[in-house]
Specification:
about 140 residues
Length: about 140
């Protein structure tokens, strides 16, 4: 046996009928009921695969590094997974004079890829730089 509870929608229909007597009022009432949100795909990330988003982030971090904005590059690489991101974050930290953190980043890269020659060499260079000049105190 079918249960017909559709009569509960009649008050909404009657309310719409009241507004329909004036031209455009119903349309305005419906527009007011729409949820207002910003566009989700404004930056285009909605349609990108994970590897494409990572590539875009890697490119942005590389551009920041080339502009000598090492703090921005380090922030981007910190959010990224992988050996290359750890290695590059170490480079950005070393350029900022944050040697202990740079060594930690190189160590993370070397844990994942023990024979990474660039990470080994850069870690050695940072350790040598620490011996010559102590690291900067953390900025507050």
């Amino acid at each position: 046996m079918a249960i017909d509870d559709g009569y509960w929608l009649l008050p909404l229909l009657m309310l719409a009928a009241v507004f329909s007597f004036r031209r455009g009022v119903l349309a305005m009432a419906l527009l007011c009921c729409l949820p207002w949100q910003t566009a989700q795909a404004a930056d285009g990330n909605l349609w990108l695969r994970r590897d494409q988003r990572e590539h875009r982030a890697m490119r942005q971090a590389s551009e920041a590094f080339e502009r000598r904005d090492y703090a921005a590059a380090e922030r981007i690489w910190k959010e990224m997974p992988g050996v290359d991101a750890d290695y590059n974050r170490g480079n950005a930290l070393a350029r900022q004079g944050r040697y202990p953190e740079a060594i930690d980043a190189y160590d993370e890269a070397l844990r994942a890829q023990p024979n990474m020659a660039d990470a080994i060499e850069n870690r050695r260079a940072v350790v040598e730089a620490m011996r010559r000049k102590p690291p900067k105190p953390p900025e507050s």
